[in-house]
Amino acid sequence: MQFGLYQQQTTSLVMTQELRQAIHLLQFSAVELTSFINDQALDNPLLDVKEPPKTEDFSYSTYTRANTEDHPSPIDYAHVTRANLSDHLLLQVQELRLTDKQKKDFTYLIYSLREDGYLARPLEELCEELGIDMEEGEDLLFTLQSFDPAGVGARDLQECLLLQLERLENRNFLAEQVLTHFMESFAKRKWKEISLELSVSLAEIQEVNDLIQTLDPQPGTQYMSEPVQFVKPELRIVPYEGDLLVHLEDDLIPNVGLNRHYEELLKNEADFEATQYAKQKIQQVQWLMKSIQQRKQTIVKVGEAIARHQKDYFLNKNGALKPLTLKEIADEIDVHESTVSRATTNKYADTPRGVIELKSLFSSSVQNGYGESTSSRSIKDWMKELIASENKQKPLSDAKIVSWLQTEKDTTVSRRAIAKYRDELGIPSSSKRKRFEK
Fold first, then answer.
1. Beta partners for residue 58, in sequence order
2. What is the pLDDT of the chain when averaged over all its residues?
3. Mind listing the pLDDT tens digit for each residue in 79-105?
4. At a CB cut-off of 8 Å and minimum separation 6, what does 290 contact?
5. Where do the RNA polymerase sigma factor 54 DNA-binding domain residues begin and end (predicted)?
């Protein structure tokens, strides 16, 4: 083996800081981009951020805001607050007459709950840690289980549902009996066995099931401190003379510019460090402005391409989505597929069909009887309509749905695909959709 110094030419793709920032900004939603710009302004004194002028709201949604000065919306006064479960329960403890020791024990018990409201550990362990006997522990838990929300403090799903049933104004004792003695059989839908054991009809067991479906199996989750996500459509797709126009909502994002007040730093040649600092910050502002402009142009290009492909869907009430992939749009506007993905994720458009995420307008294809393509989204829409109108005493099996699509829509789909689409739509199987006559 010989050692030495050699020259070798190679080509490699290097991502510049400017390109990296442009890609970074493209994946942001309008809300996230606004937050990012404001954060940058805190770090860069040369970045001038101005809120965009307010324009008259326009939306295809059912809610249309009138002149806010004459007709203020109740939404304008809304203030969202989310107390966590522990705080909500501790407020209720204050209403009880308890000794200091009991308050401490109660607080310990409350902080031993999971976020979904269930007791995190066995009561025996908690009693041992608190230095109390099981009888005292059961009394504490019994009181806690009387708190709001109903079902809190349960040790398992069965107890959680029973606690909620016991709180109903019109108690259903059959439902309580079913959950107490036949929980496992009921979950496995062995309703005939239960009806025979209790000497009731299948229709009555079905009513029990309907009631239990209204209960909350995780009562604590309504107090989980998740931030409220606001959707701001960045595009507006508007019908115009038989075609579609795509507009960018410019007023969603702050206007970014260069703060001229600090440009004097560049003229102060005596202070080299200040001059270099100003140059660096000006370059950052210029990069940000260019990245935001590129982001706008890309989103509009992608939106226009999608509108061309899905024209029938937007213009016709009964129009169906056509099969469309990220690659098709990428090839059409000459960008990488990942760019289209970033430009459509968490980006929304206000359309004649309502506010829609751009990503949802892409759909895989299924071949119909004439060799033409049908989108999976259209098949799901047909399935929803068909199942909604089916005979609930004799619900359609997946095989019958396959046959209906073949006959009525000239579309061939496998039974496995139908089962997959059902799961994605949250529609149970035919056996679970079956209703019994009263």
1. none
2. 81
3. 445 568 888 999 888 888 888 888 888
4. 18, 22
5. 276-435
Backbone angles phi, psi at 411, to 5 degrees: -125, 125
CB of 356 closer than 8 Å to CB of 237: no
Residues 16-31 have pLDDT tens digits of 566 677 778 888 888 8
Instruction: Return contacts of 203-208, CB within 8 angstroms, 24+ apart.
Output: 203/436, 203/437, 203/438, 204/174, 205/178, 205/436, 206/435, 206/436, 208/172, 208/174, 208/175, 208/178
State the sign of the Cα–Cα–Cα–Cα dihedral 287, 289, 295, 298.
negative
The CATH superfamily assigned to 365-433 is Homeodomain-like (1.10.10.60)
Res 407: pLDDT: 82
Please tell me the distance from the alpha carbon of residue 258 to that of residue 41, in angstroms, as a whole number. Answer: 11
CA atoms in the 13 A half-sphere facing the CB of 182: 21
Closest CA to 363 of 353, 374, 355: 374
Q: Outline where DSSP puts E strands in 76-154.
A: none
Q: Is the pLDDT of residue 74 over 50?
A: no
pTM attached to this predicted model = 0.56
b/e map of 207-216 (b: 16 or more CB within 10 Å)?
Answer: bbbebbeebb
Mean pLDDT of 363-388: 69
To the nearest 10°, the Cα dihedral for 24, 29, 33, 36? Answer: -70
* Cα torsion 421, 425, 430, 431: sign: positive
Check residue 7 and give left, alpha or beta (phi > 0: left; psi -120 to 50: alpha).
Answer: beta
Question: What gap in Å lies between CA 336 and CA 190, rounded to an integer?
Answer: 53
Sorted by sequence, the CB contacts under 8 Å of residue 288 that are 6+ apart come out as 21, 37, 40, 47, 256
**Token pair 């966590």 is at which residue?**
84
User: Which segments of the chain belong to CATH 1.10.10.60?
Assistant: 365-433
Euclidean distance between CA atoms 44 and 164, whole angstroms = 55
